[in-house]
Amino acid sequence: MKIAIVCYPTFGGSGVVATELGLELARRGHEIHFITYRQPVRLALLNPNVFYHEVNVPEYALFHYQPYELALSSKLVDMVKLYGIELMHVHYAIPHAYAGYMAKQMLKGEGIEIPMITTLHGTDITLVGSHPFYKSAVTFSINHSDYVTSVSESLKQDTLKLFDIIKEIEVIPNFIELEKNTEDQSIPCSRSVMATENQKILTHISNFRKVKRIPDVIDVFYKIQQKLDVKLMMVGDGPEKEKAELLCEKLGISSKVIFFGNSNEVDRILSYTDLFLLPSETESFGLAALEAMAWGVPVISSNSGGLPEVNFEGVSGYLSDVGDTEEMAKKAISILEDDDTLCTFKKNALEVAKKFDIKNILPLYESLYEKAIKNQKL
Ligand code: GMT
Prior knowledge:
Elements: E1 2-6, H1 13-27, E2 31-36, E3 50-54, H2 68-83, E4 87-91, H3 93-109, E5 116-120, H4 123-126, H5 135-143, E6 147-150, H6 153-162, E7 169-171, H7 191-194, E8 200-205, H8 214-225, E9 230-235, H9 241-251, E10 257-261, H10 266-271, E11 275-278, H11 287-293, E12 299-302, E13 317-320, H12 325-336, H13 339-354, H14 358-377
Parallel strand pairs: 1-2, 1-4, 2-3, 4-5, 5-6, 6-7, 8-9, 8-11, 9-10, 11-12, 12-13
The protein binds ligand GMT.
């Protein structure tokens, strides 16, 4: 199949899912065209089946806002015609589903029918999409997609609650590539850079936005370090990072916390991690938690959104109410203070992660694509 994938290129869940999905589809012989404004961070262009088409928005003094949707829909039309693309898969409703719909209509005017699949990722629904300024356009573009998927049952229910949706929504969860975790991790960034042999390593990875409740991460860690010899790895960058660094200073724990910023060594850091912290306000799925679990790392998370569909209570970790840092710290200590318990949770985390192996999830997308293309031709 020839597939156009539209996504955000940045560090962050939806872009990562879209890129990994496209790369695996390419490995399976499909021709994949990534269409976005910058080369996605995880995109290696070494596969002959992978193409990247950049969307450029020329600056013009009259524009207060640059018309990205316009440029994107135009690029989609041109690439579909040039490469004979058979299907568009847009990740994150805003503004991709809207631009995809416009492209579809333009192509229809030229006698080309092409199906569009929209994958809802989370904040496009729960935080941004439901804002009154966007709601009508988001509702329209979801209802005018040929197929809609969401990354968790919880996000599906949120979508049905927040919007007037007449389309079926199929749940296709996020995935991880377990095979790559067998790679040799014994090179440069070694464990000793992060902690001594006796110290346990805790990690948080995110885009440091408010929704991640960064002060809760630090509060949980602060409580744990009062009882156990631990270090905290803070990976990622975003608006809350500077405040977080100041908070660590204020609490006198700066020497126990390492801020990495955006890192390409996430896998290596996770391979040395003992416990992952994700106390988010809301999380449609929690890909970062799954990535940790795939390295056999148990998770202490909030119980909001789709997190209970990924992190199994008392099995791969524990879940607490949003903001209950007291309980999160207590549960974390109960896992970390005993090596046998930690070992059991580590094994369990990996077992649960296996459910989400790309090998199990990718065929769900492939069969949806086949159905969409077949029905378009009827
Ligand atoms: O977590 C973020 O803020 C980034 C965001 C994104 O779209 O890039 O992540 C969302 O999509 C991920 C992939 O489907 C999910 O695993 C994340 O849970 C979701 N984030 C939120 O719902 C806050």
